[in-house]
Write a structure and sequence with these properties.
Length: 95
């Protein structure tokens, strides 16, 4: 299963329990802008470069979701310190 399918399943599962499972965006450009900013914040916090991120369209709700690759940022050589849950606390999905 690729990352896009995983994120879609995760969001749809959370939608069964809550109306807003994470930050949702009507316009892809806005989702990408928010994701890039959060990915740069995660990279800065762990003293490494920008974390990976993806923007996925969720057809069932006609919205875009941004997800941040925190695990990749933490596994990089030289990554130190920082709070792992920063992006999740701000409403982003993490992988």
């Amino acid at each position: 299963m690729d990352i896009n399918e995983m994120i879609i399943r995760m969001v749809e599962k959370r939608l069964l329990r809550t109306k807003k499972p994470c930050n949702l965006y009507k316009i892809k450009k806005n989702a990408a802008r928010a994701a890039l900013q959060m990915a740069m914040d995660v990279g800065d916090q762990h003293r490494t470069y920008c974390a990976k991120y993806v923007v996925v369209y969720i057809k069932s709700i006609d919205r875009y979701v941004a997800a941040i690759g925190v695990q990749d940022a933490l596994n990089r050589p030289g990554a130190v310190g920082g709070y792992v849950g920063t992006s999740a606390d701000r409403g982003f999905l993490t992988f």
